[in-house]
Amino acid sequence: MRKILLTAALLAPVLLQQAAAQNRQISGRITDRSSGQGLPGVTVLVKGTTIGVSTNADGSYTISAPASATTLTFSSIGFVAVERPIGTASTIDIGLSTDSKVLGEVVVTALGQERTRNSLPFAATQIEGTQITAARNPNAVNGLSGKVAGIQIRQSNTLGGSTNILIRGTKSITGNNQPLFVVDGVPISNANTNTGGQQTGGGGYDYGNAAADINPDDIATMTILKGAAATALYGERAGAGVILITTKKGRQGLGVTINAGVTGGRIDKSTFVNYQKEYGSGYGPYFDMEDVDGDGRPDRISQLSADASNGPRFDPNLSVFQWDAFVPGTANFGKATPWVAAANDPTTFFETAVTLNNSIAIDGGNDKGTFKLGYSSIRDKGVLPNSQVNKNIVNFAGSLNLTTRLTASAAVNFSVVDGNGRYGTGYSGGFSENLVTNFRQWWPVNVDIKQQKQAYEATGANASWNIRNYTTSSPEYWNNPYFSREKSFQTDSRYRTFGNVSLNYKVTDWFDVLGRVTLDSNDELQEERLAFGSVGVPGYSRYNRTSREANFDLIGNFKAKIAESISFNGLIGANMRREQAQSIRATTNGGLVIPELYSLSNSVSPLIPPGESDTRRAVDGIFASTTFGYRDMVFLDLTARRDVSSTLASNNNAFFYPSAALGFVFSELVKETAPWMSYGKIRGNYAEVGLGAPIYSLNDSFDKPVAFGNVALFSVPSTKNNPDLLPERTKSGEIGVEMAFLNSRFGFEANVYQSNSVDQIIPINVSTASGFGFRFVNSGEVRNRGLELSTFLTPFRSEDFTWTINANWTKNQNRVMSLYEGFDNIVLANYQGGVSSNATVGRPFGSLRGSNFVYQNGQKVVGEDGYYLQSDTRNEEIGNPNPSWTGGVSNTVSYKGVSLYFLVDVRNGGQVFSLDRSYGLDTGVPKETAGLNDLGNPSRDPIVQNPDGTYASTSGGVIFPGVQENGSPNTVRADNSTESGSTAYGYSHNPSAAFVYDASYVKLRELSLSYSLPKAWIAKVGAVKGVDFSIVGRNLWILHKNMPDADPEDAVSSGNLGQGYSTGAYPAVRTLGANIRLSF
Q: How would you classify residue 744: left for phi > 0, otherwise alpha for psi between -120 and 50, otherwise beta?
């Protein structure tokens, strides 16, 4: 025995050396061709053997291959498999191309089920995380723009503002139309805590959506479940669709990934006012005359309190005492200056936006478990002075195999968002002043914005251009914009924690049980200030809100074979959801005792009774889902869910949501006879989902008290509750087809759908004798029907070069089918400017109403004074805010380590009313209100007529296209001289319909040029496994738009009613930057 052991010990080194000589180490890195980023989890196999490894977090691998090995294969779900000869290489780097339709591609569906794409009998689009972060967008939701058929995304141009996302149209007239977000099984609401006024376009700060707290760099996949059949398992929360997010997890080995990026942004001047430079401040072509310098002669004074540009024509030979002549501390104090247009208009007020986006992730694992720990820091400085939003996000995900059958998993995401100087929106002043309203609607073009900055810096006071008169420097209507930004700013902070803990027990090979607890916790503070010296009473407002949502899930999953050709998969489970939220909003009263001490206790008068809210909801649900498969070709899905809600009457609080879906993979029948057909499937489904009734909408309650001396008086709200309310219900049907050809080089997906949302919860008018003005009822129906097309094409694909094209197109038709008996219209919101948003039977949701032109045979009718005639009623439909269709086209061209990607986003149709144009054209701000008329004379010159009534060759005025009342072409000149204080182009002489514009656009939404260093170049650099450089851009170019001086996409509010109305619209911001990604 000793001899045997001794011999073995002596021979072992030799044998090991021989084994090592027979094997060789091959390493490399696998990247996504479209983005250049490393791909984790790619399977690397020695062809013809079972020897294989998986790539780590940055896409790197090392494999020990026998000396006889000739080929390596590289494969990953969703990518085209690749084979490479080994030859004498010790390093093999590969770029994989996306395979848009693979039978075995795994898609995450409702309740986290992972299913192969061919088994899905409903529409579900899965987007890889690398596609979301291609242009380094700090908001994951914005990263979906133009990439998915069936969704409409409306971005705000405000800093950290809300993103409104619709899936297959608006379904609820008064409820929430935002989809439910689910992150690793944790339901996340995309709602916001903006004021009701902000959400209906009335003004306020935009604090953003909750989904913005999700770190884009942490996203592995994002799946959009569009139809009710895909979302029915979520019951009453699924009415607006569901977006499932799966985050990145740890993998075998140990890896570190670092991203560091910076972008800069400047406003797109095509989306801002093009100012006229011919006429200065005033509401008429005259100067005020007073002896200012004491020489006994009257001096010319600009109309100091006038917030318009309808004053005298500029003349550099005239010396005029302007606003800065009366503000002590300014360079021109006490001086008359030349009467000329300002050298610096408000476009120079906007600064360069800067975003620093940095993250680090550490992940690893072994056969016992995996983990991933990440940190992300986003520093986002806006284009307005003193504006910044900072985000810090920490996330962890881990799993541990406790036994061969029991696995524990946990994930947590903690984020801190701090905002300072967010943008005011809408037509608002006071606490949330929107300065862009001033710049677009009420601006004298002789005011130099940089002189306003110098005045503020010199005095530290509200040295406004808009002073009451020459004897005082107190502001009349508008503040110095720099004073507002530095002194009357807001701050906010949001602490968000969401995560889950789960146990999965594998009972048998075909059945396992999952127990899961999820929590979403949010604590928010918003503070708003109005400084001493501002227009209005100084004050301080404070809003605190806490919310918690906990879910308890117990789910049984089974996968079984009934027969050799029949599979039977499914789940059965129960869910308990508990929600609670408390909020309080308080504001000082009568001013502040001590200037710049922003505290509720610093109020001059007793506080106005604060608005308090304490809401709670409990929903218990049971659900089941089964999928029958026949030869991996025919699939039948049946699901059901029953919810019991605490917000409904106890005798009527249970509701049932079913679905049925059938899919047929017909390509399985012809795979031998039609090899050119890679894939073909037809599917259809029907389902019902819901939208729960609002909290505290059953029984009447009292509003906050109003102090009357020492007595607190309570009152009932204006809308009466209804104890018989039911949830809104959406009934949806869908037929779709998916096909791919030529080894998945070309393919498409087409869906036709219709949804009818019934039992709408709407307020109807009731007699005021009841003590109420409105009453909630279940009535009305909204229909959406549409067509979705998605296609992909790979025109060229070789070992080194790949070109892929993806396109999508959606047409959705929305109609309000019915309302409460006897009602054919409900006013949803009344806007500044005499325009309203409406739900009208037979018309699309949100249709705009206001005053209209008078038409004769399709021509606008012009009156005797040369101005357009207006309709007798001020309540005609003048616009439809819903697009006719939307689409997007992306191209990715990759050559070796270089990849170019760009995305074009398109919207066609829909209208938007612009209050900026209505008021701005009236006050003479834009360029088209001045200039020359058809005779070559200044249009603002007076109208001059010859003795015979014809117009003199020196006449001013303009001729509007149209017909006179007798039907003849219009030849009457309209006065544009501003003697009346307004031009011929604004609201004073035109109906609301004159300011409704086509909201179409074509945008270069995203651009990325990336380069991955070859593995051979970095092989000598220690632990570095991958280096990727990229140049990124967002919103770089609006290729086409019809709306003048504005971005037609910009949303005035974060609610349902934001589209179709624009005021104080912020310009679009073009961003360009760079990013480096290091992998270790």
A: left
Same-domain check for residues 63 and 210: no
How far is it, in rounded angstroms, from Cα 808 to Cα 749? 9
CATH classification at residue 78: 2.60.40.1120
pLDDT score at 2: 43
Answer whether residue 10 shows pLDDT above 60: no
Q: Looking at the structure, tell me whether residues 748 and 783 fall in a common domain.
A: yes
| Three-class secondary structure of residue 199 per DSSP | helix
Residue 980 DSSP SS3: coil
522 is written with which tokens? Answer: 């949010």
Q: Cα–Cα distances in Å, from 449 out to 425, 668, 728, 749, 923?
A: 21, 69, 51, 53, 18
Contacts of 295 (CB under 8 A, 6+ apart): none
pLDDT for position 1059: 80
Are 675 and 546 in a shared domain?
Answer: yes
pLDDT at 167 over 90: yes
**Cα 82 to the chain's mean position, in Å?**
37
Q: Are 187 and 180 in contact (CB under 8 A)?
A: yes
Which residues on adjacent β-strands are paired with residue 406? 505
Q: How far apart are CA 415 and CA 203, in angstroms?
A: 27
And the tokens for 494?
């949001």
How far is Cα 1029 from Cα 1077, in angstroms, rounded to an integer? 7
pLDDT, tens digit (0-9, with 9 covering 90-100), for 527-555? 999 999 999 999 999 999 999 999 999 99
Helices (H), 217-350: 228-231
Q: Which residue has the tokens 């993979």?
A: 665
Over residues 374-400, mean pLDDT: 96
Q: Phi first, then psi: what are they for 781, rounded to 5°? A: -145, 140
Q: Are residues 322 and 369 in the same domain?
A: no
Tell me how many domains the chain contains: 3
CB of 504 closer than 8 Å to CB of 221: no
pLDDT in tens, 630-651: 998 999 999 999 999 988 888 8
Among 59, 77, 96, residue at a domain's last position: 96
> For residue 1005, which amino acid is it?
R
If pLDDT is split at 50, 70 and 90, which confidence band does 704 have?
A: low
Q: What is the largest CA-CA distance in the chain?
A: 135
Identify the domain containing residue 617 by its residue range: 186-267+354-430+478-846+881-910+1000-1079
pLDDT at 893: 95
Q: In whole angstroms, give the CA distance from residue 663 to residue 221.
A: 24
- Residue 551: which residues within 8 A CB-CB, separation 6 or more? 186, 187, 516, 517, 518, 519, 575, 576, 577, 578
**pTM given for the model:** 0.88
Is 854 a member of any domain? no
Q: Which of 283, 428, 429, 278 is nearest to 986 (CA)?
A: 283
* 3-class state of residue 665 by DSSP: coil
Distance CA 497, CA 518 (A): 11
Give the end-to-end CA distance of the chain in Å, rounded to a whole number: 48
Q: Containing H/E element for 143?
A: none
Give the pLDDT of residue 260. Answer: 95
Mode of pairing for the β-strands spanning 52-54 and 124-128: unpaired
Contacts of 709 (CB under 8 A, 6+ apart): none
Given a contact cutoff of 8 angstroms between Cβ atoms, the answer to whether 442 and 273 are in contact is no
- 828 or 904, higher pLDDT: 904
Q: What is the pLDDT of residues 956-975, one digit of tens each?
A: 999 999 999 999 999 999 99
- 1036: in domain: yes
The 3-class secondary structure across 378-391, one letter per residue, is EEEECCCCCCEEEE
Cα 326 to Cα 447: distance, rounded to the nearest angstrom: 14
* Single residue among 452, 475, 498 that ends a domain in this structure: 475
Helix (H) or strand (E) run with residue 919 in it: helix 915-922
How many whole angstroms separate alpha carbon 475 and alpha carbon 307? 11
Phi, psi of 968 (to 5 degrees): -80, 155
Pairing of strands 963-964, 859-862: parallel
Residue 852, pLDDT above cutoff 60: yes
